[in-house]
Amino acid sequence: MREKAAFFQRASASLMVPLTFVPLPAVLVALGTVLGIGPLESAGLELLRVWLPLFFAMGIAVGFAQAEGMAVLSAAAGYLTMMAVAEGVAGDPAVNFGALGGVAVGAAAVWLYRYAAKVRLPEFLALFSGRRLGPILAALAGVVLGWGFGLVWPGFHRAVVLLGEWIYAAGGAGAFVYGGIIRMLIPTGLHHLLMQLMDYQMGAWTDPATGQVVMGEYIRFLHGDPSAGRLLSGFFLTLAFGPLGAALAMVHEARPEQRRRVSGMMLTGVLTAMVLGITEPIEFAFIFASPLLFGIHVLFSAAASLLGYVLDIHLGGYALPLAVVNWHRQQNGWLLLPLGAAWTALYYVTFRLIIRWRRPPVLGQTDAVPVAGAGGSDARAAAGEPSEAARPAGAAGPSAAAILDALGGPANVRSLTACMTRLRLEVNDPAAVDDAALRAFCAAGVVRSGSSVQVVMGARAGDIEQALQAELAKAAGQGGAGQTAGRQEPCR
């Protein structure tokens, strides 16, 4: 069970890789449409419809093969071969397996790449030994997958269309359930799987200008499908305005000596949520400490999704900048402003009343966490000053050695990867991971599942992971010799 959980967590992190690319073609589509520059619009749409699945394939290689160049090349070779064969077998040049096709060939390519790395061919074939065999095996897998997908494509395509029709036939009930489940999955980090399935696979629409079939709620919205974006609009309330209300409530209800520290952390969290659509820095301040607040958050998210659907609001994306660049395709988008104000007030009043009533151990309600070895930190915390060991990693943050020490030291870390906001680890001894110290280093939360540990560090998780990898390499070169935390700077 633990191995399965670790697999799906790594898969979720891998699938975040192509999402860092999606805003670029979306901006090209928006600029091309608004400025009347046809090549920009067509380029953006082509990147989204034709090439995005390739990025999913390569994302799997990045996540499961530690971004080794030959593994990524293998995934690309497998995908391109698969599509070429599938088009011939299906007899349809517009065949498109979407994100699922990319994920399938990426998984096959990574598995074969790991096998190829151990293969040693005879001397006269030595050029193709080891990792260099990966792209060849992946291309052969692409032939098999392309032939199989080409045969089942007509039925598969029809099934996806029917599934999309069922979702939309469910109307508001479907939107309500979708919005709630996404929030419920936040602690596991697996919410990306469901979101990507909806955004890039669900529903089908034939572009009248080109005759091409476009799949996915978000992709169809960008292509101009007038029915798309309805299931996405409510998320602007949940990801932009809800966190603002929750943050204000936690700041105003924080203990006086902690209000300054909580204010700084919540300001960063609100900006991250509004600009990037990443809400974990705020959500992890309460979802584990208060099941009641988490349950209300899930309910409000479901209600927001239902509200956007019922009011026939069509928007694309999950953060306010995407709402702006896609504004030319919106329908009833102006409702976002009054609804946003109402949603901020709803979260603020509800959260503040519950925190005052129950006093759950959310951010600002518990004693400041002292950090060993950070001289004077206890006194500073008691005075409302930020801890000297709590600034996020960066030019003036806690050293990677200090964070690694809080993770139990180099010998405790079996594997380490990062997604958009989280460090994902497999550790030898979960009890050696110091949750309190990690939170003092500005971790928004720590999630445990057996030997799997996730540390929510915000949008700089990737930078922190690179620094930790360097520390791990240094420790390995020194035979695992001790890691000590140097003097740390305070959280801002």
Write the layout of secondary structure elements.
Blueprint: H1 2-15, H2 23-35, H3 38-64, H4 69-90, H5 98-116, H6 134-169, H7 171-184, H8 191-200, E1 204-206, E2 213-215, H9 217-223, H10 234-253, H11 259-276, H12 280-283, H13 291-310, H14 320-325, H15 336-358, H16 377-382, H17 400-406, E3 413-418, E4 422-427, H18 435-440, E5 445-449, E6 452-456, H19 461-477
Antiparallel strand pairs: 1-2, 3-4, 4-6, 5-6
**Overall SS class:** mainly alpha
Radius of gyration: 24 Å
Q: Which of globular, elongated, flat, extended, rod-shaped describes the shape? A: flat
How many strand units?
6
* Mean residue pLDDT: 79
Q: Portion of residues in helices? A: 55-70%
Low-confidence spans: pLDDT under 50, at least 5 residues? 369-396, 480-492
Strand percentage, roughly? 5-15%
Distance between the termini: 39 Å
Order of helices and strands: HHHHHHHHEEHHHHHHHHHEEHEEH
Side-by-side strand order of the widest sheet: 3-4-6-5
Number of helices: 19
What is the makeup of the main sheet? Answer: 4 strands, antiparallel
